[in-house]
Amino acid sequence: MHALHVSSSTELIKNEKYFGQVHSNNFKAELPNILIVDDNKDIRQYVINHLSEEYNITEAISGNAALENLEYSIPDLIITDVMMPDGDGFFLLNTIRNNPEWAFLPVIFLTAKNQVEDKLQALEIGADAFLPKPFEMDELIGIIRHQFMLRKRLKAFYSNSESLETNYVFGFEHATLESNEESYLKSLFEIIQENLSDEKFSIESLAEKMNQSRSNLYRKVFALTKETPSNLLKRVRLERSAILLESRAGTVSEIAYSCGFNSIAHFSKIFKEKYGKSPSEYINSFIQEK
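The chain above was modelled as a monomer; its predicted structure follows.
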């Protein structure tokens, strides 16, 4: 198996049958990741030329190539053609929707198969949008932005949810602390709670809102909680996501975004490290219990 990696230039992964190309000239960790699946190189390049400023782009040349890619790197959104050799778009979408590790991924169909029955089939399987070729690039960009906007709205909704028990989320008891220390932690947790859904909310942001330098924040938080501020923030986000997953308050991607994670792959990785299960497996474990 070939490792998927990023370099300073556009390059072809060793076995193109499986991976296609990774466009990483301007790779930025904070940008959403989009996987484009199409056997037509010109179509792929046309889409890449218009999206690469706003998104990190990976491309695959078939359904099976895309599935191999997903084993290594989970994108935030997939754009796929239908008619392709070595695994068509329907096969790809059906496989994604039946795999709990990928079922949450938004998928946009971009295809010359524009009959009503084709669109209905795609939507029945679980496509999020269907755009027939030839298409207007502005329309595709609008659909992509709409998909991410939907997730941001849900993120805002979940961040304001009043059903969460704050004490449970923080998993921290401080009844024996002196009043000034208790007041400090109360302010700390309130600020974290208010900004939990903001993926740009960092330790620097937390220190600024607490009117402390980063080094002073580190010493104070570690003295009271025995955790570094970064570990505390990560734990709170993960514990909140676990509560939302348990209550099935949304899809994995929606909950991840609502808890301040801007990469589904990173969220899935650290969630599994903490709970021993992927987010989808975690949801299914509660479904099976009921």
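The chain has 14 helices and seven strands.
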